[in-house]
Amino acid sequence: MRISVIGCGYLGAVHAACMAKLGHDVIGIDVDERKIGELQAGRAPFFEPGLPELLEEVLATGRLKFSSSMADAKGAQVHFLCVGTPQRKGEYAADMRYVDAAFLALLDSLEPGNVVAGKSTVPVGTAARLADDLADCHPEAILAWNPEFLREGFAVKDTLTPDRFVYGVPEGAAGIAATAALDEVYYTPLSMGTRRLTADYATAELVKAAANSFLATKISFINAMAEVCEVTGADVTVLADAIGMDERIGRKFLNAGVGFGGGCLPKDIRAFMARAGELGANQALTFLREVDDINVRRRMRVVELTRTLVGGSLLGKRITVLGAAFKPNSDDVRDSPALSIAAQLQLQGADVTVTDPEAIEGARRRFPELSYEADLETAMAQADALLLLTEWDEYRAISPEMAGEIVSAKNLLDGRNVMEPAAWRSAGWNYKGIGRP
Ligand code: UGA
Question: What is the distance in A from the centroid of ligand 1 to the CA of 124?
Fold first, then answer.
């Protein structure tokens, strides 16, 4: 099939490459010419395992091209909208200007029978609004909403073999035609057994908001339990293992620590609350306010724990923060708990050095006031405390004996509960986890 992918950020660049991998002819379009130049040259503009290799493979087939001109979307049968919906400045609601602008710009390139498939995470009601606009100017084109569930770090795998596809489609013949078009796009994963659900627009949009809200709630639930563990001397990691053995609960997303960050979970739960308020259903989601508060509290708690760890005052203390990305295998620093903790420590007088295998460049752009050091050993040298805030494999593999020889004081705050307390303690370290004795 001929496919256009509008917006080549995280979602769009991966989607475009994966659609070409599935055998389609794909044009990826973005207004950012620098990004388009990078992608066309086979370079991923962000760190995502497997993406550079995939780009190289599909660009060589000639099935994938990139362009900064929306006119190049003409001729595609399915157009995927993959632009961002960030949080509006000073508000909870999503900023819809990129979706609206991309949709408007695409209208000129549409032909009868085309399917416009939205993938961006949008406030419920967006698809119905865009479908109305489409009906006015292109009555023979069809709007579908096909939310994306990929995780950064696993984006290629999640796109090629997702858990499920969700299609939000209109009723009647148009819905049948849109479903058939999307089934053709996803023929390979569908034929391998990936489940597919069709729904109305609102349900499809809500599936995405609900999924991210549930994940955020799970993380904040275990972090709330960590708070209780901290005042009772209990161990939240054992608690998570034990409740996670109940299949109804499940162990995934029950890792207590510095909380969730990134470009999705935090802003999606806020946008969901804002939208529910507009619809008069704000009470239904007031619990998400608490989910958000618990999450923000974790960051402040780590600052306090660090203060205690270094003897009661942060002034002039050399703190090494291991990890800047919001999670490992990503260079994304949007709403990163690690960086917000690092910045707060620095503000309170600590001398902070941040290291990360991939995210230093992005971190420096956001927090130029912090010091960065790419080399792990140099970063750790003379530290009064190490703070593990992003659980990269290379940090999990640090030897307590080796680290003990280069730091000033053997203090470790394990913000992700991934280190072995006994090994660090027996090497003479003062080990502190989150919600563990
Ligand atoms: C999330 C969802 O998991 C995806 O399904 C969704 O498609 C995506 O948002 C999106 O809306 O685009 P992502 O932001 O890549 O994906 O990251 P997650 O793996 O969900 O992690 C989010 C945050 O939660 C990270 O900061 C991570 O460190 C934290 N986390 C995760 C915990 O603190 N504890 C856990 O047990 C799990």
Answer: 21
